[in-house]
Amino acid sequence: MWYMAGELLPATRRALLRRLALEQSGNRVPSIIAGLVRDGETIWVDSRGWVGDRRPDSDTQYRIGSITKTFVAVLVLRLRDEGLLSLSDRFGDHVPGTAVDDRQIWQLLAHSSGLSSEPAGQWWERTKGEAAEDFLAGVDSDQLRPEPQHVFHYSNTAFGLLGQLIERVRGKDFTTVLHEEILEPLGMRRTTESPVPPYAPGLAVHPWADVLQPEPFEDAVAMAPAGQLWSTVDDMLRWLRFLAGETGEVLHPDTLDEMRKPASVDDGPQWTRGAGLGLQLARHNGRALVGHSGSMPGFLANMLAEPAESTGVIFLANTTAGANGALAVDLLEILAEHEPRIPPEWVPEGGVSEELLELTGLWYWGPVPQLLRVLPDGMLDLSAWQGPGRQSRFRPDGPDDWIGLDGYHRGERLRVVRAADGSVTHLDLNTFVFTRRPYDPSAPVPGGTLPWE
């Protein structure tokens, strides 16, 4: 049969549903719903269990817990992109008077600030939240843990503080900024700070009997940025597309790429779990995954995107314990096994200027051949001609100027140097000279060497 975007084979849908059903029945989950996206389209949504007398559907709200932190991180990076702060700023430069005055903003985003995992006082997830001034006053020296520098230690408190940072810089409350800058532009109208019907109630299941108990919902107030939000599968699938690269006008793709890079790791040199800037990272069977889990009284959630495959998964459940985080990975594995992603057809791009074509082909870094290609999106790719070596992509930044996007040359400037007649003499990449023949004697360093013998 023809493969059509958004369609899955019946065998694939059954395998996905079976895995979801095993999770719901085996772990006694009152209700659970999951969805998959691929290439910017929703390709599967299904559910098990009941919310009252109805099946949960793609418009049923669940509390998403710490997935809220991903929105906070995007808002902070927007402030940075606007020049209103730097990630290397001390937190106290913007919100003074706490024990982390000397910590840099990026450390709070990457869970390496040394802050306690939970704020001072009673169990914040189950009690009425504190106003901003009381919350900030509680972030004192008792909230610091040893070895704060570059050591991963998950901190809900840090994201309560980042919410205050957003409010101080914007001059508006956190939820207003969130709606204006992310939710409304992306059309996420069912993501809210409090539940709006239809929604699933938070429930706990007795460990030794099939008995349910309602879980509380309290407004976290100053700690809301750590886990307050409610959302639906439809809205979360849109957020997954964002994390996979479909950022719209909300965030520059380069900034999203920066957020998805490891800033701290959770399990040693051969890491499989780590943190970017407000995002959880994982490596599984060669897959690079990015997203976040969520847990609040009565709810569990997990969201993972695989940007390299333009694929993502979300599940939402109304249970305090039981739904396994491995479910999300398993659903991605089932999709990859049953229906490997079909790459798009290659078609000639055309429209490449003669000036750009002139830059393609072999260049030499001393005696080392390097290949420069034009990518379909108009960027340049510089890589080793054969075997391993440095590789970077470059985006245009003015006539004959390019900026490195990744690899060794990230952020560095590639300049096309021309003679008086307009012909290209060499490339200058942050002082590295690339010439059309090895050690071209007419070029600057390392040209002008002795002749080849």
TrEMBL record:
Q: Report the residue ranges that make up the Beta-lactamase-related domain in this protein.
A: 27-323
Q: Which Pfam families match?
A: Beta-lactamase (PF00144), DUF7586 (PF24491)
Domain (DUF7586): give its ranges. Answer: 353-436
Which InterPro entries is this protein grouped with?
A: AmpC-like, Beta-lactam-related, Beta-lactam/transpept-like, DUF7586
- Return the protein name: CubicO group peptidase, beta-lactamase class C family
The lineage is: Bacteria, Bacillati, Actinomycetota, Actinomycetes, Actinopolysporales
